[in-house]
Amino acid sequence: MGLFKDDSQKTWEKALKALEKEKWAKALPLVKKVADEGLSSAQYQYALLLEQGLGTAPDAAEAALWYEKAAQQKHLKAMLTMARLLLQSPETCGNTAKAYTWYQTVYEIMENRFFADSERDDLQSKMEAIQEKALDERQTATDRAHEAYEAENYETALTLFSEAAQMGSENAMLSYGIMLAKGQGAARDYGRAFGYIKKAAQKGSAYAQFLCGDMCLYGMGMEESADHAFKFYLQAAYWGNADAQYQCGRMYHERQGLPLDLVSIDYDTAARKWLEMAAAQGHQEAAQLLADEFADAPSIEEQYQKAMAACQAGKHDEALPLLQPLVNAVYFPATLSYIQLLLEKDDWQKIDDAIYARQQAYMDSQYIKGSPYEETWNQIETLMKPYANRFLDDLVLG
């Protein structure tokens, strides 16, 4: 929910005062009013009043609906409550998987915020206790959906994919989104389709990331946006999707959709990097674009190996200029080697150059989590940490 309106803020303050004094009947309509406006804390509080029968008769079913509304907005207590409610009926197929999915979401939030280790450990124990059954339910639900789809029972398949998606199945999220985009089993709905495909993309599906890029580029359910498309393509490219690698190469070559902060990037070398990766996987359009535009240029890998040969021969002054364009194209192995060479000498200018190279790589680092490039980036960060601190100290003390 966005910022409070003044009257909503006043209503919520009155509600909190009534709750503090345990004046449930007075608090109930005030909390409900703010909950209706979308505040997750109010939705959770209203559900709590309904479940416990405070100020009204107990209504567990209605309470569950409000807990879910708050949980959908990532309210931690609401998500944990949803898991608790689902696990009260473990005999209902899918409930354990859905509870596990809520736990997963909470755990991911805990990893990115300050929480006591004991809280994370407690949640992890709860997840481990139900993991096997949850994953079995998730896979069974996804398999049933695919069986219905293969039998061309699209309405049934759509419903089953939706249920499996609620259980946290990345495959089901993607499949459900694709069906909505195609209009299979329901009217075509690009907006909802994008939402589900994006969820699969956020879970690490390179194909989903690529599809999100396509939908942004061609304005499927949204305004056309090459900028947003490039970000999705870049993420999928680092995960090895050949179509996305081709799109990144093409967009670098055509200067399409590139953020303004990429002024330090060597566009042509970056284009060649991605096109070569795609071509190596048999992507014909990438191979053709390489032949048409970069036929006379050495390959990225050839240039990198030439630099490494110079490095091994002790010819560091020869290796550095060979690595420089690869660094400017955010070729992570070259960036690591380049920084290692620069840091061999305790020279402020060299350290400054290393910090700049790290900063170039940092722009892409947000897209590589979980990919084969993450380990290389972590090595770069380890190398640069003490030097970055020294550089910052110099700026402060200057």
Describe this entry's structure for a reader:
- The radius of gyration is 26 Å and the shape is globular.
- The chain has 398 residues and is an all-alpha fold.
- It is built from 20 helices and no strands.
- Among the domains are: 205-297, Alpha Horseshoe (Serine Threonine Protein Phosphatase 5, Tetratricopeptide repeat), CATH 1.25.40.10; 311-398, no CATH class.
- It has helices spanning 6-20, 24-36, 40-52, 60-72, 76-87, 95-111, 117-150, 154-166, 170-182, 190-202, 206-218, 226-238, 242-254, 267-280, 284-293, 300-312, 316-328, 332-342, 348-365, 374-397.
- The model is unreliable at 391-398 (pLDDT under 50).
What's the short version?
The chain is mainly alpha-helical. It has 20 helices and no strands.
Question: Measured on Cα atoms, how large is the radius of gyration?
Answer: 26 Å
CATH class group of one domain: Mainly Alpha
Order of helices and strands: HHHHHHHHHHHHHHHHHHHH
Structural class: mainly alpha
The amount of beta strand, in percent, is under 5%
Largest sheet: none
Uncertain runs are: 391-398
CATH topology of one domain: Serine Threonine Protein Phosphatase 5, Tetratricopeptide repeat
Percent helix: over 70%
Average of per-residue pLDDT values: 90
**Ends distance:** 44 Å
The second-level CATH architecture of one domain is: Alpha Horseshoe
What's the quaternary structure here? single chain
CATH superfamily of one domain: Tetratricopeptide repeat domain
Number of extended strands: 0
So how many helices?
20
* Global outline: globular
